[in-house]
Amino acid sequence: MKMDTDFHMAKGEGETGYINNSRFQRKALFETKRVLQKAVTGLCSVVQPPPGNLVVADLGCSSGENTLIFVSEVINAIRGYPLEVQFFLNDLPGNDFNYIFRSLENFKKSRSTKEEHRHRFTFLGCQGPTTPGFSLPKAFICFTHPIVSTGTLRYLPPHGLDVNSKTYLNKGNIYIAKTTPLSVVKLYQDQFQMDLLLFLRLRYEELVLGGNMVLTFLGRKNEDVYGGDLNHLSGLLAQSILCLVHKGLVQEEKLDAFNLPFYGPSVDEVKAVVRESELFDINSVKLFESNWDPYDDSEGHSIQHSIQSGENVAKSIRAVVEPLFASHFGGSVLDELFKEYARNITRHLESEKTMYSVIVLSLQRR
Ligand SMILES: C[S@@+](CC[C@H](N)C(=O)[O-])C[C@H]1O[C@@H](n2cnc3c(N)ncnc32)[C@H](O)[C@@H]1O
């Protein structure tokens, strides 16, 4: 599992690509609109004209329309301020930067009204994991907005659960499940704390005093580390892999060796790490819920079209994990795997409509 090559989203404009399967992330982006606006306008008054220079970074921009929505939100928020803005669009080397820069050209043309001519915008691609060794330009006023879910806050798989260690401590599971030993839960939690702390330290170096950062990522509604919706979602995925093991398409050892490089924290866990860092003040933190099916905007407890919803959820998850799964299980089993996953999701949704818990955290650098 290599971050540079395996952690990016599914490429291309086809049926399984992230570009066409990122509606959940878009919905999350709309939910963060107010927090984002507040953070940007808060900075505008600090940046000194004439003309002030605001540096905005989208960490984990991926490729697709969502980055354009993010850029629009920022441009709308700074309307009225005589600012020059530099956008740094950051993602891993495997990301399709060409697509995003092609869309930006059209976007710039479509927005060149008189009002916007008062601002000057520059867009720069910024390739590299947001980990040690990588750094955004320093000494700028910098607003950092990694969106969403498994964004740049994607964690490494816990050390000790490393595939190469050959000690399969979490057999049959790919994340925290009912049969996951407490020692493995602890590995996940320690890795989460270590990675978030490191992320905060690195961003602290890049942000100027008073700079803002809005983080949006999947989390957990309750404190029960076994009981979040991500546990369900990954449990159903593990079941689907097991089905392929039974069909002889995947070796059992491959399933035993795989652990998602991800942890869904509770709000309290996140707050505790931020406080421990002593680097940022928490402006606000909230948790909102969003239906698993990104195309289901209903608010009730019932699912209207469970088969379609199962397929929608499976496609949106595939778009995020495909490169990772292809590297570990092999690309040839993915169609079968995600068909099985869609069926499992459908069965689950028929008994219980389930939602993601999304945490939106707005931080200010001390
Ligand atoms: C779920 S996508 C979100 C994309 C986009 N912001 C959106 O809202 O649609 C997460 C993105 O984070 C990127 N990513 C994951 N880990 C990263 C890291 N350490 N550094 C930079 N980008 C990373 C992935 O490649 C992916 O494009």
Molecular structure report:
The protein is α/β, with parallel strands linked by helices and 366 residues long. It has helices spanning 3-6, 23-31, 33-44, 65-77, 97-110, 114-117, 182-206, 229-246, 252-257, 267-277, 306-329, 334-351, and strands at 52-59, 83-91, 120-127, 141-144, 212-218, 280-291, 355-365. The protein has a single domain, classed as Vaccinia Virus protein VP39 (Rossmann fold), CATH 3.40.50. Helices cover 43% and strands 16% of the residues. It has a four-stranded parallel beta sheet, covered by helices on one side. Helix 4 (65-77) links the parallel strand 1 (52-59) and strand 2 (83-91). Helix 3 packs across helix 4 (65-77). The longest helix has 25 residues, at 182-206. The chain is globular, with a radius of gyration of 20 Å. Residues 144-155 have low confidence and may be disordered. S-adenosylmethionine binds at residues 3, 7-9, 22, 25, 29, 59-62, 64, 66, 90-92, 95, 129-131, 147-152, 154, 320.
